[in-house]
């Protein structure tokens, strides 16, 4: 590994470990520094579970705890090559969430052979796409329920039977769901963008067929993201049509 790359790793390692400790402390003290918390009205299906954790935070936040634990384990281990151990811990926890340059440096250090490296990248994209699909399925359930609530509120308004305080609480919950889904979508789009940057950077290294396969998988992920974006936009339009007065 080159000196400059190792220097970059050391700086990132220090940041990740510090972030890990900070985030753990915030979680234990109930700090709101991490954004949304329980009790904000967001549907629990959007805030709990593995798919919620994967898309709720971006960049360093997304992997700080996992990488920090792995890196500390490497530092305390008897591994004969702590550098390799640290690389494995960082890339396993973070992937492309840390940015295209970080991801590409890591993969090139790990796989010198371009064909093997692109095959691994394909695997990473496919795994993240499956996570997008799982998140979309959860989101669709929530969106369907929110639409049903909106339809009932509109019906009650038309029949002059609306319970205003109850309807306001329901609308507030729907607004929280939309805000959370938009945040998830922003992080999904970031993943797509970073993977595209990696593919562009590898274009001169791999064969056209290898790069094309990577791009096809990235496009498949993007299609899932675009589909969810349309569903969220439609929900927002339906919600915006309600005026309780």
TrEMBL record:
<protein>
    <recommendedName>
        <fullName>Lipoprotein</fullName>
    </recommendedName>
</protein>
<keyword id="KW-0175">Coiled coil</keyword>
<keyword id="KW-1133">Transmembrane helix</keyword>
<feature type="transmembrane region" description="Helical">
    <location>
        <begin position="58"/>
        <end position="76"/>
    </location>
</feature>
<keyword id="KW-0472">Membrane</keyword>
<keyword id="KW-0812">Transmembrane</keyword>
<keyword id="KW-0732">Signal</keyword>
<feature type="transmembrane region" description="Helical">
    <location>
        <begin position="83"/>
        <end position="104"/>
    </location>
</feature>
<feature type="signal peptide">
    <location>
        <begin position="1"/>
        <end position="29"/>
    </location>
</feature>
<feature type="coiled-coil region">
    <location>
        <begin position="150"/>
        <end position="238"/>
    </location>
</feature>
